Amino acid sequence: PHEGKTELEKADAPHLDELAAGGISGMTDPIGRGITPGSGPSHLALFGYDPLKFEIGRGALAAAGIGCDLGPDDLAARITFATADGEGKVTDRRAGRISGEENRKLCRLLEKIEIKGIELFVKTVKEHRAVVIFRGTGFSDALNDSDPQVTGVPPLEIEALSPKAEKAAEIVRNFLHRAKEVLKGHHPANMILLRGFAQSPRLLSLAEIYRLRPAAIAAYPMYRGIARLVGMDVLATGGTIEEEFSTLKDNFPKYDFFYLHIKGSDSAGEDGDFQRKVKVIEEVDRNIPVLTGLRPAAIAVTGDHSTPSVLKSHSWHAVPFLLSSPWCRPDKVGGFSEEACSQGGLGRFPALKVMPLLLAHGRKFTKYGA
């Protein structure tokens, strides 16, 4: 129905095409060939952290995204409000994307659950997402998710994946049992699913590794969380694409590295909405002159993973990448798309190599060796 084209190939994006034509392009593998990545590890790779060595669970990202600092013994997990039928089977993994107001009301109810020896925090993230933090001692995050990732089946039982996690598993099972009672009359959000159990990660900051003053512009909490965990200043911004670019312009003199995240294309892909994803890409393109008008030393445009609307999910496909800088050697690529970038001079390479390329073209590196 889309003439065999991807959303990026279908979009009218003259400014991105112009950047690609004057720059150098390629395709990145976020983690490795054939691996479908989550947003956490694929972002870590883009920022120069080996995602196979540094693992940040979704719970820690969710907590950091709303400004909750995890203590050394805390255990966090991402909550997804969901809908269950009379048999306890999941019928909607997002509870119809409930409103923020409803989310906050349900979080207040869940936070009243009492578990002996545990301090409990349940906080709203956005739409159908929230975060739970268990504060106690002797925890391990070696637990499976309760989210089955499909509908028509019941949630998965929480199990300890190592002997050290037995205590945590028992407490989480208790919480889920109590939550079921609390939410049973609150259709469509009459169930919670838990994902990404995590304790506080310990990462060197981008300032320590690269001597940068980095800032993040992201409307969605999880990506603000990733940025905070690697030591970026997370800037206050509006939620629209135009407002994010305006935030970049307003803060441009204060920092020497910016991460600007657009969520809309990923959301449209997960919803299977091809045309909406095309429109998001075209809206980003209309704002590119704001970026180029600031004359940064180097610009990278890419994604943390592919989210084809035909799959309605993240995928293992390589991700188009373009680098624009006065110091790059332009290749023969004339536009920004999967098809075009696959012919680019950078070839196909791990996303872990993006940061060195970007810093080199931004003249941030000194000579190696004599």
Q: Average pLDDT across residues? A: 94
The first-to-last residue Cα distance is 58 Å
What count of helical segments does DSSP give? Answer: 13
Count of beta strands: 12
Structural category: alpha/beta
Indicate the proportion of strand residues.
Answer: 15-25%
SSE pattern: HHEHHEEHEEHEHEHEHEHHEEHEH
- Return residue spans where pLDDT drops below 50 for at least 5 consecutive residues: none
Produce a short descriptive summary.
It is built from 13 helices and 12 strands. The chain has 370 residues and is of the alpha/beta class.
List descriptors.
370 residues; alpha/beta; 4-stranded mixed sheet; 12 strands
What does this structure look like?
- This protein has 370 residues and is α/β, with parallel strands linked by helices.
- It is 33% helix and 18% strand.
- The protein has helices at residues 7-10, 14-22, 39-46, 58-65, 100-111, 166-183, 206-210, 221-229, 241-251, 264-270, 274-292, 338-341, 354-361; strands at 24-29, 75-84, 90-92, 119-126, 129-135, 191-198, 214-217, 233-234, 257-260, 299-301, 319-324, 347-350.
- Strands 2, 3, 4, 5 and 6 form a five-stranded antiparallel β-sheet that branches. It has a four-stranded mixed β-sheet with strand order 10-11-1-12, sandwiched between helices.
- Helix 8 (221-229) links the parallel strand 7 (214-217) and strand 8.
- Helix 9 (241-251) packs parallel to helix 11 (274-292).
- The longest helix has 19 residues, at 274-292.
- It is globular, with a radius of gyration of 21 Å.
- The termini are far apart.
- The mean pLDDT is 94.
